[in-house]
Backbone:
């Protein structure tokens, strides 16, 4: 019986960017509707190796954002690719007035992500909330630039949550499992929860090898 000691891995190619549009003609003079960025979505299974294409946007959402960011910092070698409001806020604290901190943080984060997307650089964005509105501008920018777009739900156990957050997490989990996050523009979805978090040994951005 043939055996292999190679770790399991998931590879996501940069050709997973095809989508479809449900745009209908607008009446002349009517308000312009935002472009439809919905796409086909593939749900990934947790594995020891998570390999995404270079230049991807990976959005990490979590019921514990600080733990999610710590996980990403351990796994991703290119620290410059890691973006979060907390990281940017830490750079601005003491340099801008307190009353301007939130607005300046949002502005600087948006500009930094946009620049990396424009340059086809990898972006790993850790969001502060589960709210789709927080991640939508970044996904839309990546879609407009033709960059691969992925979402990861990082769900550690034992996190204290409000009832509203529990409901939001349950809804996101359901939509992820049903491949519905393609409606937001994500081409792949992955949920890491419980023991599957500890199984991940590598998260990298490289072109998948072709076994011809």
Residues:
């Amino acid at each position: 019986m043939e055996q292999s000691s190679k770790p399991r891995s998931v590879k996501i190619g940069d050709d997973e960017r095809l989508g479809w549009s449900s745009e209908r003609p607008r009446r002349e003079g009517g308000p312009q509707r935002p472009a439809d960025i919905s796409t086909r979505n593939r749900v990934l299974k947790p594995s020891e190796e998570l390999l995404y294409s270079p230049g991807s946007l990976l959005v990490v959402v979590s019921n514990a954002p600080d733990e999610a960011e710590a996980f990403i910092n351990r796994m991703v070698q290119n620290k410059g690719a890691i973006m979060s409001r907390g990281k940017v806020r830490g750079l601005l604290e003491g340099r801008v007035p307190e009353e301007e901190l939130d607005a300046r943080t949002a502005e600087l984060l948006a500009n930094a992500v946009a620049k990396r997307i424009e340059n086809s650089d990898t972006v790993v964005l850790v969001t502060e909330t589960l709210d789709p509105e927080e991640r939508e501008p970044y996904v839309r920018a990546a879609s407009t630039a033709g960059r691969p777009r992925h979402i990861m739900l990082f769900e550690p156990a034992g996190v204290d949550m409000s009832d509203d957050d529990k409901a939001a997490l349950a809804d996101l989990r359901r939509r992820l499992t049903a491949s519905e996050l393609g409606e937001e523009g994500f081409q792949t979805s992955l949920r890491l929860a419980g023991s599957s978090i500890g199984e991940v040994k590598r998260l990298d951005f490289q072109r998948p090898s072709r076994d011809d």
